[in-house]
């Protein structure tokens, strides 16, 4: 068990330190924000408590200060009472108006301070006759009335804070306007629930000792519950800050992937109608993978494809569209996939007609096959993706057909060579 704690608790301390450093950046612009200050104090207190929870560190602190079990007191005050009150204060300022939040926060901080004073008194009284430190202070001394009272006070203060955090996060998470704030509140509730499991485990240990059981038999629950708890607390309480950046990166990646999928369709249309390109110098292969402002480049690509399809519409023969529709229906296609296949077949036919300098088969104002698709920009991108997918499939099928028809001809030619 000591080995597990020696790994989990330092990792938790590092996580708290990273969260503290991350939120310190906001201090320059939000110096007077009580929620931010409370959050910084919570991460600092929790990080120190996890550091003290590392067996070798707490032992060294006790030896250095010459006071038995003072490390345990620091763990419980900083990691339980103080940090839970600070976390709760930050959330209170998030969900309530400033005046209401200030009043509620002061009440909670006052209760936490009274609990801390009472715990210090009980700890001092319980340790007055102690000659050596306890490796597991609460578990090894739970049979002593003073330590039992200390444990109950600690669990009550810590657990009550977690219950209130869960209540507030669940209540206001349902009505939070911002997506990442809502996710953050729900994640925080999960973390507080894990910490509450730890509190219940400590309460159970008090009952177990009185029943003659050894709580060390299930002490693995302590590092597991604390590790899960701090992970979700850190993630949830910092999520409103870094979450929007994740959404932005996800949007950029999605746009880049869409840009690559549309590129074969754009390249074919651009080869037939070069005038569609606003910046012809960006039509090279390097520009495809280094597009610069990907959102703008994708927007331009969509417009240019639309302009190209409009310019190629006179070359889209109605009989080709009719045949493509029948073939697609025979293949079991329906809905947008069927319409996209008709559009792709008509486009391939138009590109070949344009390449061969054939005369247009319809007037430019006459609608082409499947040319009118309703909706906004997002719907238009989705439609062009379907067309691009169908166009790639058509070209692949045509190439396979061309190769299969060329091979017999080549063999017959070889037999006729004298």
TrEMBL record:
Region (Disordered): 353-376, 395-418
Parts of the chain that traverse the membrane: 6-24, 36-53, 73-96, 105-126, 146-163, 184-204, 224-242
Keywords recorded for this protein, A-Z: Membrane, Transmembrane, Transmembrane helix
Pfam families: DUF6545
All residue ranges annotated as the DUF6545 domain in the record: 253-392
NCBIfam families in the record: MAB_1171c_fam
Name by which UniProt lists this protein: DUF6545 domain-containing protein
Organism in which the protein naturally occurs: Streptomyces gilvosporeus
Higher taxonomy: Bacteria, Bacillati, Actinomycetota, Actinomycetes, Kitasatosporales
């Amino acid at each position: 068990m000591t080995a597990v704690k020696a790994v989990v608790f330092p990792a938790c301390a590092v996580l708290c330190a990273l969260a503290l450093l991350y939120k310190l950046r906001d201090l320059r612009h939000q110096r007077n924000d009580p929620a931010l200050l409370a959050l910084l104090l919570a991460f600092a207190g929790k990080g120190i408590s996890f550091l003290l929870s590392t067996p070798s560190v707490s032992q060294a602190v006790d030896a250095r200060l010459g006071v038995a079990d003072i490390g345990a007191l620091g763990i419980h005050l900083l990691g339980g009472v103080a940090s839970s009150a600070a976390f709760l204060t930050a959330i209170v300022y998030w969900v309530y108006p400033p005046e209401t939040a200030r009043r509620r926060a002061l009440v909670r901080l006052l209760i936490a301070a009274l609990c801390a004073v009472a715990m210090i008194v009980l700890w001092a009284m319980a340790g007055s006759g102690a000659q050596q430190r306890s490796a597991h202070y609460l578990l090894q001394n739970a049979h002593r009335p003073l330590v039992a009272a200390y444990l109950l006070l600690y669990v009550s203060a810590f657990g009550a804070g977690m219950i209130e955090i869960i209540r507030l996060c669940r209540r206001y998470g349902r009505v939070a306007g911002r997506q990442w704030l809502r996710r953050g509140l729900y994640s925080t509730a999960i973390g507080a629930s894990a910490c509450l499991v730890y509190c219940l485990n400590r309460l159970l240990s008090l009952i177990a000792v009185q029943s003659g059981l050894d709580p060390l038999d299930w002490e693995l629950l302590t590092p597991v519950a604390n590790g899960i708890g701090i992970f979700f607390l850190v993630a949830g309480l910092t999520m409103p800050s870094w979450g929007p950046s994740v959404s932005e990166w996800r949007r950029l990646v999605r746009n880049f992937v869409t840009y690559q999928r549309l590129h074969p369709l754009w390249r074919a249309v651009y080869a037939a109608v070069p005038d569609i390109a606003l910046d012809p110098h960006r039509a090279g292969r390097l520009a495809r993978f280094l597009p610069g402002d990907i959102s703008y480049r994708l927007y331009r690509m969509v417009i240019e494809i639309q302009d190209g399809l409009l310019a190629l519409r006179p070359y889209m023969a109605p009989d080709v569209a009719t045949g493509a529709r029948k073939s697609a229906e025979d293949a079991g296609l329906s809905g947008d996939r069927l319409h996209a296949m008709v559009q792709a077949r008509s486009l391939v036919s138009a590109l070949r007609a344009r390449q061969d300098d054939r005369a247009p088969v319809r007037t430019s104002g006459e609608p082409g096959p499947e040319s009118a698709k309703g909706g906004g920009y997002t719907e238009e991108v989705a439609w062009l993706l379907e067309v691009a997918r169908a166009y790639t499939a058509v070209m692949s099928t045509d190439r396979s057909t061309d190769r299969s028809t060329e091979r017999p001809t080549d063999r017959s030619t070889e037999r006729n060579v004298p």
